[in-house]
Input
Amino acid sequence: MIKKTKLNIAKLLELAESNVSQWELDNIVYHDRYQNPATLVKFLSRIQELTANKAQLTISEKTELKILETLALDLDQKECEEILKNDDEMVQKRFIENLARQSALEILTNGKVDFETMNSMCKLGPEDFILTSKRTQDIINSIRELVIQGETLSSDVAGA
Output
């Protein structure tokens, strides 16, 4: 028989409060800060916001700030300036990449590119349309290869 003990609610809430994940901030929340100007601005703004209010930060926010400052060490000033410049070439590359990712996901999940996505692709010039189509296929191929690798790895695991 398991003896039940009284919950220490304050301790549990404190634990939950300080439970910020570097992995989540790095790979989910700010994952494309190296190429997406909006995410980079959000990332930098969050650091600035936390730094400005340092005296009033919660345990969780202090942990978050420490993690964000660590992640910021990987950024290069000149590369950040290039990302934030938004010159035509960078905007074009980002647009094509985002459109290709969207169309690849639609193909993988729905078996076809949605009308709006195809409409956006058809507005592109021939060279950009071809680049988007090729990049879409590259993404699909990469995802399929990763799935195959995952299936191969999991076949060696008992019960998988």
